[in-house]
TrEMBL record:
Record keywords: Isomerase, RNA-binding
Record organism: Pseudomonas wadenswilerensis
One function term, GO molecular function aspect: RNA binding
Gene Ontology process terms (BP): enzyme-directed rRNA pseudouridine synthesis
Name used for this protein in its record: Pseudouridine synthase
Catalysis performed (reactions): uridine(35) in tRNA(Tyr) = pseudouridine(35) in tRNA(Tyr); uridine(2604) in 23S rRNA = pseudouridine(2604) in 23S rRNA
Signal peptide location: none
């Protein structure tokens, strides 16, 4: 198919944007800058816009990791172990993290080399619920539930968070479902009540549940039906 057709078929670009991207030489096919809209692309062509990989052009990989405490959601870190170092596979530099977790947060982490798939999973417009188990220092009051539903104003981003569903499980534990993934979002939400999060564990992202057979630090490839569910 023609490159301009491939790009404008994607939900993220209009025809006008595609024309601009090509003129501005921001599109690469198999590593080469391309401005000709008529160039033919195939399933195995690698297609990138700026730093974003739109089509990997080689086997796509999807992994589910049980992130342990004490590792960084990054591909490289000078001080701490990274989640990528837990993956004992070739070409781990191709993988990126779909939805980062803080250093001490545990649970479901997805790694892939498919940029479109991870975008669908993480962009707020998709409204896929991310479900966390939370333990806090102070008691969690019933009045929290309404506030989580109404949203929290985050001055730094100048936005109010989307409605979130909080279910109380015990005096200091809850299950929280949010549709965004803002920086330290859960901690900042509880921070509004001066209540420190002591334990945070991601159980689910949309239809994908952390496999209970995975111990912290272990990972497995996603099943085809899990990949298609996103
Ligand atoms: N919210 C946080 O505050 N930390 C995480 O790791 C994930 C969500």
């Amino acid at each position: 198919m023609r490159l301009d057709r491939f790009l404008s078929n994607l939900p993220c670009f209009s025809r006008q944007q595609v024309r601009l991207l090509l003129v501005e030489r921001r599109v690469r096919v198999d590593g080469q800058c391309v401005s000709d809209p008529r160039v033919e692309v195939r399933e195995f062509s690698r297609i990138e816009v700026d730093e974003q990989l739109l089509q990997a052009g080689r086997p796509l990989r999807y992994l589910m990791l049980h992130k342990p405490q004490g590792c960084v959601s990054a591909t490289q870190d000078p001080q701490h172990p990274t989640v990528i170092e837990l993956i004992d596979q070739p070409d781990t530099q191709d993988l990126h993290i779909a939805g980062r977790l803080d250093f001490n947060t545990t649970g479901l982490m997805l790694l892939t080399n498919d940029g479109l798939w991870s975008r669908r999973l993480t962009q707020p417009q998709t409204k896929l619920p991310k479900v966390y188990y939370v333990e806090t220092e102070q008691e969690i009051g019933e009045h929290y539930i309404d506030k989580f539903r109404q949203g929290f104003y985050f001055a730094f981003e100048d936005l109010t968070t989307q409605p979130a569903e909080l279910t109380l499980l015990g005096p200091r534990s809850a299950r929280l479902s949010i549709v965004e993934g803002r920086y330290h979002q859960v901690k900042r939400m509880f921070g509004y009540f001066d209540n420190k999060v002591l334990r945070l564990h991601r159980e689910r992202m949309g239809p994908l549940q952390l496999d209970p057979n995975l111990q912290p630090g272990q990972y497995r490839a996603l099943y085809p039906e899990e990949i298609q569910a996103i």
